[in-house]
Amino acid sequence: MINSIVLTGRIVRNPELRYLPSTGNGIANFTLAVSRGFKNKEQIYETDYFPCIAWKNKAEYIANNFEKGILVELKGRVRIRNYKDKQGVNRTVSEILIRSIKKLESKKSELPQEIKENEAFYEMPEEFNENIFRAIETDDDMPF
């Protein structure tokens, strides 16, 4: 079985970096807002919010190079964690443990890092006709 997730969204707040006293390892956390890509009955895009966590070198890298508002793609795994809150109530939280992350743009809407100056963006025409292919007539028997 595989526990893997890929998300594209915007960082909701600046990543918070702290160090664990027991090991000295860095841990960074932030929330990623991911649009569902469609509008609800009220014609509003719905958004899901994912708590994300990075450890050690990744934590320091994220804290120093990522900020609120930028569009990122991250890959990781889902962790379900149970704990008791301050009132003693059992809680369950889903978190994304980050394996890799890359900037797709900054808050200033710069081009993605992977796109070179001379590469073009291609968009599908608004009036795209899916039925542009014609059937091929043949008398040959299918080989299977």
UniProtKB/TrEMBL annotation:
<dbReference type="GO" id="GO:0009295">
    <property type="term" value="C:nucleoid"/>
</dbReference>
<dbReference type="InterPro" id="IPR000424">
    <property type="entry name" value="Primosome_PriB/ssb"/>
</dbReference>
<protein>
    <recommendedName>
        <fullName>Single-stranded DNA-binding protein</fullName>
    </recommendedName>
</protein>
<dbReference type="InterPro" id="IPR011344">
    <property type="entry name" value="ssDNA-bd"/>
</dbReference>
<dbReference type="InterPro" id="IPR012340">
    <property type="entry name" value="NA-bd_OB-fold"/>
</dbReference>
<dbReference type="GO" id="GO:0006260">
    <property type="term" value="P:DNA replication"/>
</dbReference>
<keyword id="KW-0238">DNA-binding</keyword>
<comment type="subunit">
    <text>Homotetramer.</text>
</comment>
<dbReference type="GO" id="GO:0003697">
    <property type="term" value="F:single-stranded DNA binding"/>
</dbReference>
<dbReference type="Pfam" id="PF00436">
    <property type="entry name" value="SSB"/>
</dbReference>
